[in-house]
Amino acid sequence: MLSPETLAALRNLPLAAKTAAEGFLAGQHLSRRRGAGMEFSQYRPYLPGDDLRRLDWRLAARSDRYYIRESEVDTSLVVHLLLDASASMNHRDDNGLTKLDYARLLLAALAYLAHNQGDAVALTVLHPAGIQHLSGQSDSRQLPRIFHALENVEAAGRFPGNDALAPFTARRQRALIICVSDLYEETSEIEQLLTRLRAVSGEVMVLHTLARNELDFTHRGSVMFQDLETGHTLQLDADQQRAAYQQQLQEWLRNTAQNARRHGFDYHEVNTSEPLDRALREFLRRRQSIS
Fold it and tell me: How confident is the model at residue 156 (pLDDT cuts 50, 70, 90)?
């Protein structure tokens, strides 16, 4: 897999998405559900009410018994991509990419992968003032719509409040929700949103996006930090605070992962300096498990 910096350097989101995802397209994930698909699987005895078009008349003539031809069929679902576009996603890693840059690449690749598996793909961008929503579609124009929306996203402000999100969470639709967020919140607004979405949609995957420089605390000497959402600043000696910072960070990450899984979310940490392949594999694994 190409590095995220290389993909971003293409400056062409559709091409970057295709480049990142096409290595995962070998082998469609078929469910074991039987139906009137294209690939023959087995015969079973005819039952009253079965579609007579699926009856094998030649076998009936030879055996004087009636059998239905069954096939394995592709299953599709709604893959609902959810992007946190609050200002903390503007955090920049040492490779020059922001969390938002990485999230764009990741969501575009997931959209490409899901679309090529025949799934309807939806996108919701969570802005401070509310939401930008593209309903789930599987037609040929949906990918360009999603790419265009992702290319024009700008992160700003704080995570939207419950009032702005109420119409979004009122929709009841079976879907696989994939949320890309750094999970920085003032209280528990992201957790509450995902809990409500799991109640109405059934499946939630959380891709917790973190930069390497915040994971490894690569800063040196006296550094001024600014909260991207509140504007608050803090000056400290990075070398003196590194051990305490990393201890608190690991504790927060453990608690975050445990809390997410306690709520029934499929939680995965993604690093903005690493290729997208882990997240794409987890999507395929999750998709296969619910097909």
Answer: very high
Statement to judge: residues 84 and 187 lie in one domain: yes
pLDDT of residue 273: 93
d(Cα 125, Cα 86) in Å, to the nearest integer? 10
- Tokens read off for 119: 């799934």
Residues 167 and 207 in one domain: yes
Q: Are residues 175 and 66 in the same domain?
A: no
Of all residues in the chain, the percent with pLDDT exceeding 70 is 86
Strand partners, 270: 209
* H-type alpha helices, the chain: 4-9, 13-21, 57-63, 99-116, 142-151, 162-169, 189-201, 212-215, 238-262, 277-290
pLDDT given at position 33: 39
Q: Pairing between strand 266-271 and 202-210?
A: parallel
Q: Which residues pair with 205 in a beta bridge?
A: 178, 266
Triad 112, 265, 82: Cα angle to 5°: 40
Residue 203 is part of which domain span? 4-28+76-290
Do 178 and 108 fall within a single domain? Answer: yes
Cβ–Cβ under 8 Å, residues 98 and 92: yes
The three-state secondary structure class of 272 is: coil
**pTM exceeding 0.85:** no
84 and 50 housed in the same domain: no
| CB contact at 8 A, 132 and 125 | yes
Which stretch of 62-66, 78-82, 230-234 has the lowest confidence by average pLDDT? 62-66
Q: How far from chain centre, in Å, is Cα 54?
A: 38
Looking at the structure of the chain, the number of domains it has is: 2
Q: d(Cα 263, Cα 266) in Å, to the nearest integer? A: 9
CA 254 to chain centre: 21
Based on the fold, state whether residues 133 and 169 are members of the same structural domain.
Answer: yes
Token code pair at residue 262? 């306690």
